[in-house]
Amino acid sequence: MKPLAIALAALAVVSTPTRAQVAMRTAGLDPATLAQITDAITDVVDRGELAGAVVAVSRHGQIAYLQATGLQDIDTREPMRDESIFRIYSMSRAITAVAIGTLVDAGRLSFDDPVHRYLPAFEGVRVRQEGGPDRAPSRPITVRDLLLHTAGLNFRNAEDYRAAEVRSRDRSLDDFVTRLATVPLYEDPGTRFRYGTASTIAGAVVEAASGQPLDEYMRETVLDPLGMNGTGFHVPPERAGRLATPYRVLDSGGLEAFETEDVPFTRRAALIDGAVGMLSTAPDFLRFCQMLLDGGELDGVRVLSEATTSELIRNGLSEEILATRRGGAGWSMANASVRMEDGDGARAGEFTWNGSVGADFWVDPGTETIVVTMWQSSPANPSRLRQQILDIVRRAIR
Questions:
Q1: Choices 3.30.450.20, 3.40.50.720, 2.60.120.10, 3.40.710.10: CATH for 96-212
Q2: Residues 202, 146: contact at Cβ < 8 Å?
Q3: pLDDT score, position 326
């Protein structure tokens, strides 16, 4: 398989449509069909639903499409660039899961370890009981529960979490753990899928098991080895000019800039949040996905063992919990929804997830195809643009 770094460099110097089409055909993607991605994005931009976007598509380890469209900032007229930086929100969770995986490979923790071994605040956690007093859980929360969202924890904006002031980017990860552990679990661990704060707690487990701050450990073991230089937990001053502005669509028409957090991403927050706290670029996250697709290795650098990578990207939910999931979709410890069977143009084994202001990734191991879409928008998926792009890519596969 052609190394992704070489393929990306090759595409970056493409100077004519003919050479770009050769790159697409070598990757097994039809150039005329793939070009419709640009048309779809331009249409949404022209209708005033989106400022701009960056989309990357690869197949067989080769970049077939990398295109920036529209504006990074409307007021300054700064154009969107391949290296524009985006708030990826819940796509952060996948990177945190890989950080956990590196610790598993190093023998420093197990997926089935109790969380309280690393975070003692969870040793006395209780479970809420309708009409009765809180009780002890049927078993401890495990690291696996955190990654599968079966820990009995809820979403960060849940009413009782707000009442306990669990989350503030102005307060530390340790403070988050302490406050969250005082709120009763919503159900026994391992009994229900409930998406939420578990990935933030997983980041705290990384800190405890590694003895390093999450951002430092992640930089050393995941981001630097993969060459993800535009990815992190805040944008330093020298890169601030690459940060895309988020926009909301107004009822009256047009776009309005807004800030997504009280502590902006141009500052290093006190809370290093492995659930929703990261930023990245389309090429960076494409490299991350390629590593997962290639069994934990990229360009000769191994980040995870093949066994751990395989365990991270497959469905990890029990049949009982799967039956409660809408559409019967599986869930992986890599924090991605997993397609369980073929149908409607999709293939079993595909895994995908997104961020709340527009970022998205999709990986199909069966065809070795990856799609990463990046924009900053509320709503996060204007005119179902993600689905439009994915449909185009599926039709382009040869």
A1: 3.40.710.10
A2: yes
A3: 79
